[in-house]
Amino acid sequence: MSRAAGHTPAARVARIESLSIPLPQVFDMRPGTPLARLLPLLLACWLLALGGCATVGHVDRAEVAGKTYVVTGASSGIGRGVAEKLGSMGANVVLVARRTELLREVAAEVQARGGQALPVTADVSRADDMARVMRETLARFGPIHVWINNAAVGTIGRFVDVPLEDHARVVDVNLKGVIHGSHVALRQFRQQGFGSLVNMGSIESESPLAYHASYASTKAAILALGRALNEELRLAGLRKVAVSTVMPWAVDTPFFQHASNHSGREPAVILPDDPRKVADAVVWVSLHPREEFPVGWKANLAYAGHRVAPDLSERLSADVMHRYQMEKAPPAPATSGSLHRPVEVGRGVDGGHREPPGAVGARPTVP
Ligand SMILES: NC(=O)c1ccc[n+]([C@@H]2O[C@H](COP(=O)([O-])OP(=O)(O)OC[C@H]3O[C@@H](n4cnc5c(N)ncnc54)[C@H](OP(=O)(O)O)[C@@H]3O)[C@@H](O)[C@H]2O)c1
């Protein structure tokens, strides 16, 4: 059977080619084309732009001096770094955590740097304790400018291998603790007509990691809480009250010494950031509220990657976590860390993960 001339396959291809709109040459990405040659440069610019977004602006001492800050989890790590930074800027700092002797040490440091300090021993998972923190703060310093819910604990391991009481405690401290703190803070801010609430999330608020299931869930919930609260504040017309969620990448703090760990291996701490840079970011955002605030280029890249391609980014990060947490990390015994009661170890701002191997205080970091 003969075909009409215009219906042969060759004619159809020719017609489609004539109909197709050629992409301008500028979008041609074949090797050797101008765009292909420019691609590494464009990628570098994009990374720099992300880094730029994450760069916190300068904070003048005058912006902070005399203001009252409540910082939970102030006995070590980022919270201690924030407290010390605020001290050097002349703030009144209320230091909250369970280890009283460390809070006294941090209070002395804050005062030595020029600030005022009030240590209050409290467990954030107890609503009564948070109400007491509020009462003691008001009695000592009057109105509160910034409340930072920073205290948290973590648990590492296959979800089914981690005891249920550790998962439950992570929720009690990380989520209920933030709800308790946010409740007392926002009631006070509403009465005052101003205030900045800063909640410590994590990059895991956006992009959860395998073997961190309950921790990641609490951090995602903290981000959702902040978004919902900002809507309520807008609807209530409270323009001078805002909630920020800070989202750091892994940070070199004692967090991993304090975490519950049922993975059978040392915690994998991948390319951790400097805790003092995160502390600076927390101080900056307390004055320039941002609903979501990924800190540093790694967190910004992970955040953008998860927004654009969530399944791919989760698959890649899970594969990396599996390799470094479950296969490559040295063996370690099971522990509930500092979840149920505080521990002696892990007292400074730094965790020692960036120290060269073998140095005093060095702790394993992968890769
Ligand atoms: N390190 C990281 O890789 C990383 C990454 C992203 C986000 N973060 C977040 O950063 C925040 C600070 O953690 P960090 O890295 O600085 O670790 P950290 O050194 O272990 O600090 C946690 C702080 O929370 C306090 N805390 C724990 N349980 C508490 C409770 N029930 N009541 C009151 N205080 C309690 C701890 O002090 P006591 O034991 O004295 O109570 C300590 O001061 C957390 O929200 C964490 O999720 C950390």
From TrEMBL:
Gene3D superfamilies documented for this protein: NAD(P)-binding Rossmann-like Domain
Coiled-coil spans in chain: none
Any GO molecular function: oxidoreductase activity
Bilayer-spanning residue ranges: none
Domain Ketoreductase span(s) in chain numbering: 67-281
Record-linked SUPFAM superfamilies: NAD(P)-binding Rossmann-fold domains
Any one annotated GO CC term: membrane
Protein origin, superkingdom: Bacteria
Keywords from the UniProt entry: Oxidoreductase
Region described as Disordered: 329-367
Alphabetical list of InterPro entries matching this protein: KR_dom (IPR057326), NAD(P)-bd_dom_sf (IPR036291), SDR_fam (IPR002347)
Family indicated by similarity: Belongs to the short-chain dehydrogenases/reductases (SDR) family.
Protein name: Dehydrogenases with different specificities (Related to short-chain alcohol dehydrogenases)-like protein
Organism (species): Ramlibacter tataouinensis (strain ATCC BAA-407 / DSM 14655 / LMG 21543 / TTB310)
